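Sample 1 of the test manifest.
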Amino acid sequence: MKTITVIGGKLALICAVAAFSLGLVNAVTAPRIEELRLARLQAALAAVVPEGSAGEYEAVAESGVVRGYYPVSSASGEKVGYVLRLVGSGYGGDLNMIASYLKDGTVHSAVLMDNQETPGLGKEAEKPEYMRMFKGTGGEKDVPYRKSQLPQDQADAISGATITFSGIGRALNTGSDFAAELGGTE
Amino acid sequence: MIREFTKGLFKENPIFVVLLGLCPALGVSTKVINALGMGAGTLFVLVGSNIFVSLLKGFIPEKVRIPAYIVIIASFVTIVEMVMQAYAPDLYNSLGVFVPLIVVNCIILGRAEAFASKNRLLPSVLDALGMGLGFTLGLSAISLVREFFGNGTVTIFPIAPLGFDGIIRIPLIYQSPARIMTLAAGALLVIGYLKALLNYYEAKKKDAPKNEKGVKEAALAE
């Protein structure tokens, strides 16, 4: 009995010291990590907003595809579209995205943010060129999320990372419906 | 003493000779910069955990030594993760899940169990440095080959004053890279060939002195 207490005590002591030192490191790095996260969000927002400026953020849901949105208004104050925070599901887990839509649900642009896709394959979707194939879809044309919906040259470009592609496509599609609904009611 | 350091580089290179830590070696060796970052992270964890395991070897009870080692290792990994996230976010993003996975990198637990828990501080640190550098070296070699052929680029640090973005593009290969190299299969191929190459030189080195001796003996017999 006594040895067990001693052994357990020693292990607990090691754990306590480890936890304490981790807390110290966290206190130093956490503010900077948060700062970086916000900066990335701002940069992504600036990149996707069509002409005009983004308004106040409105949260929609904690789970699901559409997490929240920013309304976008033109210089004259007219509402021109929405920027949505989307979470799709990819090959390596969640695909965090920022996407801007016109009022009728047409995709204006999108940026893939935090994700765990495979480097060299799914991660290619982080490049701005990748999102170009979605631009202009969602209104009259459907947002592509199956390979067969793409022209041949683009279908080649996504081969090897089809799951990432359809995850992004599906999320953008849901976002498009959401934006069109918002745009219709206002 | 210096042998504790140099053995990790080639003679007991963790990737090519001991064949440990293959999981991260396959996973992050798609870009040279990732390999260097991963190597640096692993080196730090290895040195940190070896120091503490060596210092605490009298304190840690035999029965719970593995949990104790894991706690020590996991703490250092978490530190690396947090610091990398705060100060090298791009690297952190591209390494992704492999940073937390350093915890289960068998090189680290292996060195703690096989070396640091039986040796004093200085040899343990040297052992960790050698093994960590050996791991980085192996990882860099694999990623150099893979990125060169698989992507047609070599990505290292960007140097702002020179207007260099850190990516060297290889003409011809950049336009039509051998994509298989960036996949896991390519990694295994490269590791296999590099290991074969290393074995070839090792075998040659072993043969060389034998032959010399043989020649001398032959000369004596005459």
